[in-house]
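Contributing new records

If you add data, match the layout below exactly. Sequence lines come first and carry their own label; structure lines follow with theirs. Keep one chain per record. Anything else will be rejected by the validation script.
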Amino acid sequence: MSKKVTLRIDVDTHLNLSARQVGELVYRLINAGLEGARKTIETNQGDVVGAEMAASLDFMSIVACPVHPEAGESDQVVPLSATAVNRCLVIVSGGIADYVHDEGVEVELFDWDNYRAETAEGRAEMHVPAHFVDLAQPAGVPVQRSALP
């Protein structure tokens, strides 16, 4: 037998966060707490009974509702997925990459094959924008010079 409960939590912040951003942050906090509960159960150390109760919770939805909505802001349903971040699906077919992404995601596609072909021709001008430097450098992807120290 399951029991459904609606929980209302009012949140205030000095930052200019949207209702969706607040909802996503709350979801991340919930996931962090549930991960801690699972570790408590695995190690059998700490408040195991409380951790088991927390782990029994199945969060079905988070709806972030602005108290005083600004222009264009409305209730935001936060997707409950493995992470509360926006997603991008890259699809490759016949050597051609395409993508589908959630609203608010900036996607930069870098093609090593095209880059190598341009390098061989002496015109390698392909670089990802400077604000992608933290993602690009570990993969060795060239970045616009303005991003490099």
